[in-house]
Amino acid sequence: MREKHKILIVDDEAPFRSALRRLLEKNHIVLEAGTGAEGFQMAERDEPDLVLLDIGLPDGSGLELLPRFKELRPSPTVVMITAYERVKDVVMAIKRGAFDYLVKPVDIDEFELTIQNALDHAGLKNEVSRLRQELHRLQGVTRLIGSNPRFLEAQMLAVKSAQSRDAGVLIQGESGAGKELIARLIHTNSPRSAYPFVALNCAAFTTEIIESELFGYEKGAFTGAKTEGKEGLLQVADGGTLFLDEIVDLNPEIQAKLLRVMEEKEFFAVGGTRKRKVDIRILSACNQDLWQVAEQGSFRKDLYFRLATIRIDLPALRERQDDIMALAMTFMEEFNDKYAKRFRGFSPEAERLLTAYSWPGNVRELRNTIERVILLENEETVLGRHLHFLEPAAEGGTAAPVEKFGLELPDEGIGLEEIERNVILRAFEKCGKNKSKTARFLKLPRHIFLYRLKKYGVET
Predict the structure, then answer these.
(1) Is the pTM of this model over 0.85?
(2) Which domain holds residue 353?
(3) Is residue 199 assigned to a domain?
(4) Buried b vs exposed e over 399-426: b needs ≥16 C-beta within 10 Å?
(5) Is residue 460 part of a domain?
(6) Which of 58, 312, 323, 329 is 20 to 30 A off residue 369, Cα-Cα?
(7) What b/e string do you get for 210-229 counting C-beta neighbours within 10 Å, with b at 16 or more?
(8) Residues 364, 366: Cα–Cα separation, whole Å
């Protein structure tokens, strides 16, 4: 059974509170307060998900009280109520953190839609908070967001594997899925955490550069070498962790040298004759099944077994669809801080685009997308038009084909407006001509849906 939300009504008009209670109490737990002081006390004690806060209260302005509600932890979503739709008050309320506002007398359809949107927003905030607490329980890690069972299992396995000083861990998953974050999680929670974490992408350099980067070289070892020689990453990481990303791209000769490091804890620098001892743990990552590559003869099986004492498989973001909005909210907060912006949520159309897209670049691509929007736009809500560049790629996601909706396309062609009109009118009939319900069904803001009804000659 779905848990009921807790809604606090702060308004000095008892009949108005009673009317709202009757609308809400069937599906929610409703609390009432007649003054700002009483309402704030109840919010501190009862931790409501949503506060309906009147601007005109007998003991002060709701606008002055709003920041105090937003400072509570957990912070409730707040919808302001006003008797007069004054632009100045509305702007002030939004700037101080209100999610939306309602004007007395309240239109029931508008009220229901506003409450639903506010509770959806509150639920998303609570989910992000819950995930952060869960990750914090995993020994202080707060950057890995996700409630997908496979992703949480990967994190649990990472934390458990961190207890070892030496066991090889192979992290497999598509590019951008978070392999390096998992490697850092292991290092941060390991006995080697006080020593360096050093990462090298094996696909980014030629074989010669990889060799000199890993093992270092003696002075004069080759043309262009520094006269004093160079310390390799194996030495830089001594005592700590070396993370080798895309290890499948290592040359067979370097694979043999790396196996010696793992077995003997020693190596020779390029052009050197003196053994160098090193005490490190090697973590590795690959964007394909490394065992299959080894089976095909392109990777040493003996090295594979050393690297993959523990194997962690990360799911692609398209397999973690329920995590997309939680991640997007987290990135929004990060880039709000970075660029001094005040974005506070996503429109239904923006959510549809984000969750329908296939994310071939995984979490890295999602993060870059949110950064682009926060940097370039100046709204307080991410809108569908801000994500127009995702539309073409959405075909690979979960967007439904035209056939699913039973739309017949005549040979002579058809205008898009005719299709839109047909869909809107059919949806309106399907939803019993309830405007708010139809707007939700079509995933449209209510005012846009009403505009289109009027456009197509339907009485509103």
Answers:
(1) no
(2) 318-396
(3) yes
(4) eeeeeeeeeeeeeeeeeeeeeebeebee
(5) no
(6) 312
(7) bbbbbbbbbeebeeebeeeb
(8) 5
